[in-house]
Amino acid sequence: MTVEPPEPSPRPASPAPLRASHDDREAVVEQLRDAAAEGRIDLDELGERVEKALQSRTLDELAVLTADLPQPESPGSRPPLVLKGGMSGASRGPARWEVPGHVIAHGGLGGVKIDFTRTECRLKEVTVEAYGETSGVTIVIPDGWAVETGGTDPGFGGFKDETTPDRLPGTPLIRLTGSGGMGGVTIRHPNRRECRKLA
Q: What is the pTM of this model?
């Protein structure tokens, strides 16, 4: 009696390569430009790689273009930014600054103001812990950014959300937590004076 050998089991199909988004391509182009500015690649190579990046359809194709370059630090992996009002107050912005994934603000006696209007934030979400304490915390976000305030405690000073719910594509969501304390916490869009300065 002849025993037939078992049929080989079919090989599992290889997962399809992930498609690249516009943001993925733009991030690689920016990384290439930074590399050229640092002298890691020359201008001819920059042009060639940028052209390939803009034509890339998958993440694998993009990865090849930056495989020999230092990988940028992820903003979400940075340590939290801590601002303490102390006696004389503290602020961050409106000049450009790098936004980490976590910001902690203690109003203290002098108060704290956090202004996101000139930042270029690539994060999908930013957690802001705001504690109003004695003099309060003010947070200013650009028009088109949205805020989620479910984790806040108004305290004695209260909590004011003066933002609009309309969120533009590609902008981060601010997840606001903390307590109003005595001084309160306010999150809003730029006022007229601030808009004139931005213009």
A: 0.64
Residue 141 near residue 147, CB atoms below 8 Å: yes
Domain residue ranges in the chain: 22-66, 75-198
Backbone φ and ψ for 99, nearest 5 degrees, come out as: -95, 120
pLDDT in tens, the chain (199 residues): 566 666 665 555 556 778 888 888 888 898 898 888 888 999 999 999 999 999 999 988 988 999 998 876 665 567 899 999 999 999 998 888 889 999 999 999 999 999 999 987 878 899 999 999 999 999 999 999 999 998 899 999 999 999 998 888 888 999 999 999 999 999 999 998 888 887 7
Phi-psi region of 168 (alpha: psi -120 to 50; beta: other; left: phi over 0): beta
